[in-house]
Protein 1
Amino acid sequence: MKFNLFLPCRSGSQRIKNKNTRVFGHYSFGLLEHKLLQFSKMECVDSLTVDTDDELIIDFLSEFKSNFKYPVHVCRRPSALAKADSLDNYLQYIPTIMPEGIIFWTHVTSPFFNEFEMETVINLFKEKCINAEYDSLMSVNKIQTFLWNNTGCISHDRDFIKWPQTQDLQAIYEVNSAAFLIDKNKMMEIKDRIGDNPYLYVSSKLGAIDVDWPEDFVFAEKLLRTNF
């Protein structure tokens, strides 16, 4: 079974200007360079596909891909699929550019979801999802705390007990987008990056960090400088 990394890098981030490529710590080509270096250390993947509409990224990869021991494919994303609201159509497009095997979809915005954790996820997929109980895998954050919405408490029944121990609460899981793994043919069939029964991989605290807002970028950069 082949495992093929997939990395989307759309230009024009709405919240952080040049998010993928702006200087990040000592990485002059930013989060992208950092993630590519992690990829280049992985021994258990068969290829990497980077899909982008950013000419700077295409130029950078033309030279940087020499650091890899496995094939690196650069696809130029169609302009119609480079919009923030085009994810459903994008899900149908991805299998058409990917090799046969398992698609491992991740993002540069998970800078501390490193090569070791990615390899852990691959091994878990082999155990849990190949001829087994689950049909896909995604990374999540486990939330087990007191939760409210605008109608009141949703984490527990306060008529029964007002402040239970948090470890006794029913856990819920937040998708953190560090990893989605699914067979290419399954993805093509259902037009989604997870199946009906995904295995929920609870990321490490560091691996769960998602750079989505300017303050996330600042925090992640400071964390990087502490040699995590």
Note: Residues 3-140+175-225 form a domain with the Spore Coat Polysaccharide Biosynthesis Protein SpsA; Chain A fold (CATH 3.90.550.10).
Protein 2
Amino acid sequence: MSNFGTTKESIDYKTFLKYVEELKKTGIKTNTLQSYIGNLKIYFNYLQQENYRVDNPIESINIKGKVKTVLGNLLTADELEDLYYSYCLVLK
């Protein structure tokens, strides 16, 4: 975070989002990014407890994984049945 010209006392939500975007550009996996953010949340909670900060600027940040689209009802019941029986004939 020091590359962003900020300190633990002065970091804000907007700066942290820029940091997250830079991490994403490196190609790290979503799970790794979530782990980094989780650790930083713990660190900022500690800073609050020790009175270095009055807030946690990253408390509400959540990184979601890729959205997977599941296609449904591609074939009708009759089409599935026809496909099944034609496959059974090929195996014989």
Note: Residues 2-67 form one domain.
Protein 3
Amino acid sequence: MHLRQEKPIYWMVKQRGVIFCLSVIVMLVSLVEISHSQDANVAKRKQAEAIHERIRIHFKNQNYPQVAAEMNDLFRLKLEGPDEDLVARELIAVVSNLIRVKQYAIAHQITDASLNYFTKPNTRATAWIQKGKIFEAEGKSENALTAFKRAEEEAKRR
């Protein structure tokens, strides 16, 4: 009877060992995939950082059309999740600076592009708020009110 107990226990240990090994392999494959994904995200963040610096220099040199081109490059990176929030913050800074130098057409162009890029309700709301601020700076109160209402609608979609 003692031998009969050993066989099932040995078999169970062997089976568990195989299952454990398979689990470890699956986990390692997942970690490699996550690592590649994180590497891609790190690379995208570094690209975004470089774009931010180029935008800063274009503002310094008053090369405002190039700011729009750089923002489009930033949108093309398709940063997602919390990184999308960073792009929204960049949008706020860029639009604020464009309003300050009265480059309304370029500011509108960038906010329109951002609305095509942003997927999260809070970042889309940010874009609409920026659109409203541009309209307000242009003296277009009705358009500003409409944009601010759109921002509120986006924020409610959470």
Note: The radius of gyration is 26 Å.
